[in-house]
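Quick one: LysR family transcriptional regulator from Klebsiella variicola, structure tokens please.
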Amino acid sequence: MSSRSRKIDPLVLRSESEQIEITGNYVLAVDDGNAYLEAGLAGLGVIALPIYMAAAHQAVGALIPLFTQWRISPMPLHLAFPPNRHVNGKLRVFIDWIVELMQQHVPITNNK
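--- reply ---
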């Protein structure tokens, strides 16, 4: 779901040699990752999750990977904060923590 338009964006999947776009007839649409995960765990349909959200559930058989030859294009994650000259200690700790957490799952690039 697009946060700007509140419309459901098509799902773009890529393989090594191909790209497809899927636009479905959705019965349920949420804009919260945890609600999305819970819907999938409840058997409400096929879901596309980041590995870090799905891994523990896959390990116990609650989620089963489908279309493993396809990947969803990476999406940006931005940290937004006021442009002060000085980043206070609490904010610096949070920034360092979230970067470390995300690096465990995906490559991080710095696009300043």
